[in-house]
Design a protein that fits this description.
It is a single chain. The chain is mostly beta strands. It has two helices and 19 strands. The strands form six sheets. Strands 1, 2, 3, 4, 5, 7 and 11 form a seven-stranded mixed β-sheet that branches. It has a four-stranded mixed β-sheet with strand order 6-13-12-9, with helices on one face. Strands 8-10 form a two-stranded antiparallel ribbon. β1 and β2 form a beta hairpin. The two termini are 48 Å apart. The N terminus and C terminus are likely disordered.
């Protein structure tokens, strides 16, 4: 069975590699702790059965993801071997991604990952769901990979223990990762810098007198028009006309490898 490396569409299970010595030979024992059973992307999508339940099906635990706040509700469950945990993604764009207790907001090298389950504004007729089967009694830890969410405490635990409680896990996530920085994008923040060039001299603006007449009680008029208000040709070939000049200058400077200095926000 192939190991799952943070892939949302794999039919494999989350596994733990445990090196141990057997007859003086270093041996890696693979143990399965979670099986992905089903993925539904919401709306009119077709439910994808990833694998049949590895064990007789136990109790069903339903966890709501997102909604009015960036939280899992409940944020922990006690699940027996064979139990099913179904994550229902109510709104926005979240994940359920496996981590470790000591690194709350970093995906485990081997672990499940739903990928982003988008339900922007909760507009889908049926919310996305992600269903797993628990095959261990060990504590399992998860977080939302959306930028900033884990750092604000959007974490989840299956079978927390006295030494690794959900409260401890959440506190560790908040301490290591700060507060929320974005709720809509999953990409790392970037700062774009550019240098734009402006004409060294501008033509002197002038005005042309407008004209107007009253016809059947309605005004037919031509407003005052600027002459030489802008350098000839400005805005031509820029998306958005004149208002697109700055962005066009950015594209040109990047294409020409010009130095960057002024932040573009």
């Amino acid at each position: 069975m192939a190991m799952m490396m943070g892939t949302s569409m794999s039919k494999t299970s989350s596994m733990i590699a445990m090196p141990t010595m057997i007859n003086n030979v270093l041996t890696v024992i693979i143990t399965v702790d979670i099986t992905i059973v089903e993925i539904f992307m919401g709306g009119t999508a077709t439910t994808q059965t990833m694998t049949t339940a590895a064990l007789p099906t136990g109790a069903m635990h339903t966890v709501m993801v997102g909604g009015d706040n960036d939280v899992y509700t409940p944020n922990s469950v006690i699940a027996a071997v064979g139990d099913i945990v179904e994550f229902v993604f109510l709104a926005d764009n979240h994940t359920i991604s496996q981590s470790t207790f000591d690194s709350p907001c970093v995906k485990a090298i081997v672990g499940i990952d739903s990928g982003f389950m988008a339900n922007m504004g909760g507009m889908l007729s049926a919310p996305p769901t992600f269903k797993i089967q628990v095959t261990t009694t060990a504590a399992l830890f998860f977080f939302c990979e959306q930028m900033g969410h884990c750092g604000e405490g959007m974490v989840f635990t299956i079978n927390p223990t006295a030494n690794m409680t959900q409260a401890m896990f959440m506190s560790k996530a908040q301490a290591l990762n700060g507060t929320k920085t974005s709720t809509t994008m999953a990409m790392a923040p970037t700062t774009l810098h550019t240098t734009t060039s402006m004409p060294t001299s501008m033509p002197t603006p002038s005005l042309v007198q407008g004209t107007g007449t009253i016809v059947n009680g309605m005004c037919e008029c031509a407003c005052l028009c600027g002459v030489n208000a802008y350098p000839a040709g400005d805005g031509i070939g820029s998306f958005g006309g004149l208002s697109g000049m700055a962005f066009q200058a950015l594209i040109n400077s990047v294409a020409m490898g010009m130095p960057t200095s002024t932040p573009l926000t």
